[in-house]
Design goal:
alpha+beta; Immunoglobulin-like; 1 helix
Length: 173
């Protein structure tokens, strides 16, 4: 046997065990999402290596550097509407003299509540546009809401023969 080779292997294994037990993570320095440049190199959030917080007794939280902190700003609450899927729209009833509004069901496919803008085109018997109306509707997450879209006082409801809601309602801006 080669004693020198065994010694090197034992040293390498020992170093790896020490690094593992101390929570040191190689190749991942940096801010770790804390924004102040502290916290790099340790994978345990319980370890405090920031010397400025050791005096004064105030609370301080070091962040781990598991690369799960999104510091890019994308997908955060400021861009929530960018990732919202359009709601689907289905006509329930069209407008008539007795009910001067179209009734539609709006289904929210998202895991969060949303406000969606429904558009209905009211048409005459020839398919010509009589009026276009929009209505914002608040729909709970993964649920359906029913909304009435009025023809409007400025439109003769007797001219309305068809109601054509768009297939989708985008998130209200």
């Amino acid at each position: 046997m080669n004693p020198r080779g065994n010694t090197l292997k034992l040293t390498a294994v020992s170093a790896l065990v020490v690094l593992t037990l101390t929570g040191f993570s190689t190749g991942r320095g940096g801010s770790g999402g804390s924004g102040d440049g502290s916290g790099g190199g340790c994978s345990s959030s319980d370890q405090n290596h920031d010397s400025s917080s050791s005096s004064g007794g105030g609370s301080h939280r070091d962040y781990d550097d598991d690369d799960d902190h999104d510091t890019s700003g994308g997908g955060g609450s400021g861009n929530a509407s960018a990732s919202v899927q359009d709601a689907t729209v289905e006509l329930v009833t069209c407008a008539s003299e007795a009910s001067p509004h179209a009734t539609v069901e709006v289904t929210n496919p998202n895991a969060t509540d949303g406000v969606f803008t429904v558009t209905v085109i009211f048409e005459d018997t020839a398919g010509a546009e009589v009026a276009i109306r929009t209505q914002d509707v608040d729909v709970p997450a993964n649920d359906t809401a029913t909304v009435r879209v009025d023809v409007g006082d400025d439109t003769d409801v007797t001219l309305v023969a068809e109601c054509d809601p768009g297939l989708y309602a985008p998130a209200a801006r």
